[in-house]
Amino acid sequence: MSRLQPSRVIALAASMGLLAACGGGTPAPSGGGLGTGPLLVGVVAPFTGVDAALGPAYYAACLAAAPSINSNGGVGGRQVSCQQFDTRGEPADAVPAATSMIASNSNLMAVVGCTSDEASAVVRIINNAKIPMFCMTGQTEFNKPSPVLPYFHRLVPADIFDAYAMVGYALYGPGHAPYKNAALVFGNDIGSQAFVAPATNAFTKLGGKIAINQPITLGAADYRTEVTAMLATKPDVIFTEALGSAGTYLGEVKTLNGGTMIPFIGTSATIDPQWFAQVSGAVGVDTLVKNYGGVDLGYTFSGPAYTEFITNLNAAASTFADAPKYKQRGSTLHLYDGVIMTALAMTATNSADPTVYNAKIKEIANGVSGATVVTTYKDGVAALKAGKSIRFVGAGGENNFDQYNNSQSGYILVNYDAQGNEVKVGELTPAQTVTISTAGGI
Amino acid sequence: MTNAQVYYATNLLVYAGVDIIACLALNLQFGLSGIVNFSFIVFQAVGAYTAAVLSMPPDSANGAFQTYIGGLQLPFPIPWIGGAIAGGLLAIPVGLVVLRRLRPDYQAIALLVLSVIANTVITNAVPLLNGAAGIALVPPPLSDQFDPNTINYQYFFVGLTAVGVVLAALVASRIVNSPYGRSLRAMREHEVAATAIGKNPVQLKMTVFIVGGLIAGLSGAILVGFIQVWAPSVWLYPETIILFAAIIVGGRGNNIGAILGALLVPVGFEEVTRLLVKLNIGPPGLIPALEWVAIGLLIIGFLWFRPDGVRPEARRVFEGAPIPEDLDRA
Amino acid sequence: MNLFVAAFGFGLVSMSVIAIAAVGFTMQFGITNMINLAYGEVMISSVYVAFYLNRAGISIWLGMVAGALFGAVFSFLLNRIVYAPFQRKGTSYIGMVIVSLAVSLMMANLLLPIVGAFNSSYQNTGGSLVRIGNITLTTNQIAIIGLAVVVMLLIHGLLTYTKLGKAMRATAANPTLARNCGIPTQRVVDVVWLITGALCGLAGVVAALNSDSFAVASGAGFLIPIIAAAVLGGAGQPYGAMIGAVIIGLVTELSAAAWSPNYKEVVAFGILVVVMVLRPQGLLAKRGAMAAAG
């Protein structure tokens, strides 16, 4: 008989409750000393599913950071390694990815990744586990979280600042009169939603008009009807991100507009070899170079920090063939810096206990007065040994954490060259930045 | 056991509970009354969304970073009850539409497509449930009295889940082992004969479909209370496939099979394959992709070698049934 | 109004792409009585076959042929190795659907590590723009429409005038009787999978060419409009699939013009659900040709 006896079920439930008998205190690693054994950086991001392209970019960052640390003595001799934890691009699968990562690895030094797909679910978990994380989500939710999340760090600005920078390009950018009539073409996915409102507010308050706000379904086979509707509103500029579908959409804009392209301004996420390849494949390299405007943080892609980064990134091709492709990707640069800053924080506090070294990360990023500026792990360790306090300025440039551990820095205005490299063409002055943020209403 | 291990263990237990409840519901709908509900995950989603908007503050809270309907901030257990009711209510129109003489694979496709439609609509109608970003900062049950970030709260939540499992199992076993269940099985095995003796198949199926919907909605309410987030990405149609695989592997038509399937597939298999990542073979994303391949192989393997599942449905024999006569003897 | 006329033009292209795929899909259903949910993944695999050839410098039109060949061989093997054995075992309808779903899941995730997660395009200028009144189409798109017409005519010719076509129709209508009349049904089934597989591969490359940009995830997106067209016309009826494709192609584009384009797929899906529920046998419900689901 297959009768499910209630007593059996209650036994099952009781065994769940039996777990209450187990339970222990937290055996924290001892405050002093860096300990022994390997250290792990967890890459918590989508590696499968619709956003499968994101995880590898962050994994590459860790693969580049590890040798920078390991070939310079490691962290007190401890070697850093990287491991991926696939969230499958959605919160319900991300939660066990995070909890199992934390449970099976007592040597986690930091976590990188956590995109908008899963941040809302995993940030809280990782914060409770007191592990420093460097997250890539641009969601407004994390602009001013209450209560503050001490272990959350965001090295890339919230999406609203990207939106303001795009408005800045439209109004103050080089080589054109200020645009008046903008079409907003963003995807209807999580990552793109946060741009529309700030861009609309800022642009309209500063004299522009929104010709059309057209959220598009990413991954559709064609956008001809959307493009035709958009062209009918006669915009003079298109604000877009539309990762994955930008090629399709913009290609059709050029075609349906009789071969003439409308200028388009992209978010910082459009500074990416794949975006360049897709869009140049669809509209042609020359058209892209002539009509594209982008905004990005002030990367120089040069200097000792970047040189070490690129050397190690290229070397990582032996384990991950596509790694060198991310050489100009902002997220990869920033996460590289995040791992190194964590290692420096551990060295500075001589502790492998995140509750001890977490606060130091912010200090090393912002620098205290009189701090020595260092650009590599090796220099940082040397300066710390000499008793100095340091400020790390890495491949991604300066960081300035506010009280919510969000780092703001100035935007520059960029174009692509024919090879797909980023070229700086201008920058927004502090006054312009303030004007736009005030208009947008932070 | 370290704290971290406790968090993981309680995570798995809650997920196991939610999957068990979901599989019990699906077993009622598919295993017992033969409705191929390929939109099952929508029922769980509607329960989750309902519980979320019932328990959350109005959308102007927390800096107004999301927009959604509701926001009634009702105390536990109303959101969970509301979630279950929502699942049951959804079953009514869906059931009425689909419970016609459709061959099973057509039913399945129609329902699958309905779930895709629902997902698309919710993603695009942003003011409704915050579109693709979904709803975040959902307050866990009784979070105004207990701090949800403590270990003890995890045990409490596991206890709540256990209560849900017990309730769902009791309801499911009552149905399976009642005269009601007998009518359903009769109808599944031989619908014409069952109709001939006066059973109303559509009404029976409809009732079971609704009960399944109620239980599915409850599973969603529990899950959203735990992960505190709910977005369209959580309920894409492959999730339904995983649950169907669980029923097939566990054994359809019986509750023990449903529970076994829930433990083996969404919990056991998915979590075990997570550990394979330690091997660090190949480019990133290879192992996670291969996990899905393994799930596909598991489904095909079971359908080939053991289509009745790990625990097939027991053949029921009445005590006191007449001894079958040997009809050859005249 | 202009938008509607333009949308009508886009609809012509849409329906051409869907028609090639839907005819293949519905014939697979007609001959084996199963809904092959792995169809979209076979399409996207053929897309990548053509992509690698295209990257090596071969024209995309030749790439279409390669894609069709790949689709043919792969679909044939898929049926022989997976579907037919399960059906011989007596697996239920729903079991076959789940098998095909599992296959599609596996295919997508085997393809993903090989080709990568990001979008790609064919190297192809897209041709120049042609304007007929308010309808704007590129030469590529006109070629696609022409190709679809040719394919439909070929299928029509095959079914009506050749011995093979007659054998196919007989096998679809009543396999046992066909076998008893001396038709080698096993071979007919194989040929149908080869032909429909070729259509599948061809349709994939055409769809990818039409959309400028594609990724592994596109495979799943192809599928539902195809099923909608096939079921609308009457599952197993090739002519029905053609009509279904016309309706689905036009209605989705026109609804995108009338309403929000984000919902254009929803319209196609909605049509599918309504048809499945109200008239599951589809528009062309007659017996003969290839038998309907019943």
Describe the protein.
The complex is a heterotrimer of chains A (442), B (330) and C (294). Chain A has 442 residues and is of the alpha/beta class. Chain A has helices spanning 6-18, 54-70, 91-104, 119-128, 159-172, 190-205, 224-232, 246-256, 273-283, 285-291, 304-315, 330-349, 354-366, 377-385, 430-440, and strands at residues 39-45, 80-86, 108-113, 133-135, 152-153, 181-185, 209-213, 237-240, 264-266, 292-297, 372-374, 390-392, 411-416, 422-427. In chain A, the strands form 3 sheets. A 7-stranded mixed β-sheet of chain A has the order 7-6-8-9-10-13-14. Chain A has a 5-stranded parallel β-sheet with strand order 2-1-3-4-5. Chain A has a two-stranded parallel sheet with strand order 11-12. In chain A, helix 5 (159-172) packs across helix 6 and helix 12 runs parallel beside helix 14 (377-385). Chain A starts with 5 loop residues before the first helix and ends with a helix. Chain B has helices at residues 3-32, 40-55, 78-98, 104-124, 126-129, 151-176, 179-189, 191-196, 201-227, 238-250, 255-275, 286-305, and strands at 135-136, 229-230. Chain C has 294 residues and is an all-alpha fold. Chain C has one domain (2-228). Chain C contains 11 helices and 2 strands; from the N terminus they run ααααββααααααα. Chain C has a two-stranded antiparallel ribbon with strand order 1-2. The longest helix of chain C has 31 residues, at 2-32. Chains in contact: A-B, A-C, B-C. The interface between A and B is large, with 70 and 76 residues.
Key attributes of the depicted protein:
heterotrimer, A: 442 residues, alpha/beta, Rossmann fold, five-stranded parallel sheet, disordered N terminus, B: 330 residues, mainly alpha, 12 helices, 2 strands, 65% helix, 1% strand
